[in-house]
Design goal:
The protein is an alpha/beta fold. Helix content is 29%, strand content 14%. It has helices spanning 3-10, 32-49, 62-70, 117-122, 162-181, 189-192; strands spanning 56-60, 80-84, 99-104, 129-134, 151-152, 156-157, 202-206.
Length: 224
């Protein structure tokens, strides 16, 4: 469930966060066609409720990947993409719209960091992208499932510090939306306050910057 993250994104802000499930009867959320069909249907209903809304799409894990792959199938151009450790990209995808992604320094939950947020960031437009990379190789272990309300029962339970991840992710989504709508040039200082005062070790990369501290698969520590 993503109730906590959704509420953090909308907290004290003019943002409507819609949590949807394009594959309710199946654990794998990889179908980009199903994602596109549901998104188009939802947007048609939103147009009746909100005047000229700015639409941002995204998702966590495989839903984030499905959102990226659904972009060519949509009948509108989203204002931006928000991905919470989107996965599984065998190569960097093509994301032309503004993009914000969250990911990790170390592989957890069998989600290879080279095929997740890092790949999405590298496949995004270098003129308007930001990557929040959690340094999860410390004593307090944070995982791919930290964006959910209570972890993933089948893979990993909620761990200490997950609340901080969702607070920071919600803050950053608000800031990303404001930056995109203001057509501001991206710079690191615009996003630093999203994680200020939160007990979370995060590196932020924007535009042309590349994560240089991601270790090779043989050097990483797999967190169970």
């Amino acid at each position: 469930d993503y109730e906590d993250l959704a509420s953090r994104i909308s907290w004290n802000n003019d943002i409507v966060t819609v949590v949807s499930d394009h594959a309710p009867n199946w654990i794998a959320k990889t179908s980009h066609k199903a994602y596109a069909d549901l998104t188009v249907a939802l947007i048609k209903n939103l147009d009746d409720l909100i005047l000229s809304p700015s639409i941002f799409i995204g998702g966590h894990s495989s839903s984030g990947m499905a959102a990226v792959m659904a972009l060519p199938l949509l009948d509108f151009v989203p204002s931006g993409f928000i991905g919470f450790d989107p996965f599984n990209f065998n190569s960097p995808p093509s994301i032309s719209i503004p993009a914000m992604v969250w990911g990790f320094s170390d592989t957890t939950c069998a989600v290879d960091v080279d095929k997740a947020a890092k790949a999405a960031y590298q496949g995004s437009n270098p003129k308007h992208r930001v990557f929040f990379q959690i340094q999860n190789h410390h004593e307090i272990v944070l995982t791919h499932c930290s964006f959910t309300d209570k972890g993933c029962e089948m893979i990993c339970p909620e761990r200490e510090g997950s609340d901080d991840v969702r607070v920071a992710a919600g803050n950053s989504a608000q800031r990303f939306v404001s930056v995109v709508l203001a057509s501001s040039s991206y710079s690191k200082h615009l996003f630093e306050d999203a994680v200020a005062g939160i007990d979370l070790d995060v590196d932020i990369f924007v535009n042309e910057e590349q994560p240089d501290n991601i270790r090779s698969p043989t050097e990483r520590t797999e967190v169970k």
